[in-house]
Amino acid sequence: MPRGDVVRFRVPRTARAARLAFGVSVIVLFVALVRRPDFDVQLGVVTTVLLGGGALTMVLVVADLIRPEGVDLRPDAIVVHGRFRRREIAWADVADVRLDPHAGVVLDLTGGRRVTLGCPGPGLLPPFHVRRFEAGHRLIREWWLDRRAG
């Protein structure tokens, strides 16, 4: 791979669609509970929690549609795109690249901090994403090993 290339990882569309479906289903459940003829104060607490959860999920889904989470591997740095911010980390500042089966790819930085990458991740259905997840980890680790000396 030429040194000038940029490799991009983004959250799969299936994961983004699942987040959207979850948010919509929570809001639909909220509406169904409110429309019940025997609606009372105790159900009001439940529905308020559901509405808040559905609204928060929808905000995150919209943020994800506007600016999807991901990682760019550049020759000089790894660029981590979060929902609300972008972070650039020089390869020399990365002490280790390791795989956490639950969290995903984790960068241990030289200052002692950790950065968990949003993708490649284990995905919603791990048996279907394991190969892609492990291949992504291997590729990020190879880029780090090739470029860590600067």
Structure description:
A hairpin with a 4-residue loop joins β3 and β4. The two termini are 17 Å apart. This protein has a 4-stranded antiparallel sheet with strand order 1-2-3-4, covered by helices on one side. The chain is an alpha+beta fold and 150 residues long. The model has no long low-confidence stretch (mean pLDDT 78). It has 2 domains: 54 residues; 79 residues, Roll (PH-domain like). α1 packs antiparallel against α2.
Give the radius of gyration: 20 Å
Strand content: 15-25%
Element string (H = helix, E = strand): EHHEEEEEEH
Determine and state the CATH class of the largest domain.
Mainly Beta
Q: Biggest sheet, strands in spatial order?
A: 1-2-3-4
Number of strands: 7
Q: What number of structural domains do the residues give?
A: 2
Tell me the helix content.
40-55%
Termini separation = 17 Å
